[in-house]
Amino acid sequence: MTEFSLALNEDQIQIRDWVHEFAKDVVRPNAEEWDEREEFPWPIVEEAAKIGLYSIDFMSNAIMNDSTGLTLPIALEELFWGDAGIGLAIFGSGLAAAGIMGNATPEQIIEWVPQCYGTADKVQLGAFCVSEPDAGSDVSSLRTRAVYDEAKDEWVLNGTKAWITNGGIADIHVVVAAVDPELKGRGQASFVVPPNTPGLSMGQKYKKHGIRASHTAEVVLDDVRVPGHCLLGGKEKLDEKLARAREALAKPAKESSGKQPAMATFEATRPAVGAQAIGIARAAYEYALQYAGERHAFGKPIIKNQSIAFMLADMATEIDAARLLVWRAAWLARNGTYVNAEGSMSKLKAGRVAVWATERAIQILGGYGYVREYPVERFHRDAKIYDIFEGTEQIQQLVIARAISGLRIE
Q1: Residues 212 and 268 grouped into a single domain
Q2: Does residue 239 sit in the same domain as residue 284?
Q3: Active site residues
Q4: Which of 96, 182, 205, 333 has minimal CB crowding within 10 Å?
């Protein structure tokens, strides 16, 4: 087991600086344009692919070949410091890849994960499809159904997914569906829908408050047929899981076994999501700090007023505290296991800090902070989603409360 350390190694420092330069030179200069256009920033993602940032190789090295677990959070913080909408466009496929890696066989990982990214010459996208119009935080109540056609060895998927990053424009869609609705979360499975599969289409594209450069839409599944080998983990493993779940349902006193496919993915990605939020918070803090040093009122820089200086001091402190929780969670995810829902703690804290810090930045800029000529209003709009997606603030509190109490808190 790698010892936990806050000292970055040489490779991590190089990656941090490399991503930061890309964020500074390519992402930031284009952030306002793509936020206003509310379109997927294909040219920026293609630039990221050319340098190897958007690639399966980078993700593999950052995740599988990093014993500390810190490389990916470090890279994400820098990229989202540049812009959250473009950052999510670049790293949105990672959620689909995580959904595959968390549930698939080694052979399926080799087959499908590279197709979530494509190549530098032909960029492809992945989408992870869990949420539904009537099932957001309550992933155990999914209505999307998967029915097995034994004669053809095919699965038939029907339903509508909501709030899907890259939904409808992705090449690979990873869909979580109910196989046995009576078992709720324990009766679900994940499926890969290959490119150009008939029956999958994009529903409405959402016009969002923030992260506007990231494509978010409904995904409609109308008698979508996928081959049996597209069931992640395979049918034998699914049948065994369902049998255990049915046995547990018949004997409530017996502890159930098996994990929900969606929750397994979210557990793995929460520190990464927290790192994104920290990048936004840091961008707002740094902009406000510079502004406070340059803006004069009553004959002196406004940072010389305690009311401003103390806000900045609190911002710096809270951002550091959130980063430490994210790094601890990322290390635990790679080197051991969560004891008291540390992944949820990191995401909860980072989301709160991002919203609070960006609001403080607007306050420091005053009226200028409220207009689009200055970026802090965009930072604030982008930050709010981190209290909502991949588990709301309240869901994180629920997960933490259950972990620390050992009780089934509702």
Answers
A1: no
A2: no
A3: 390
A4: 182
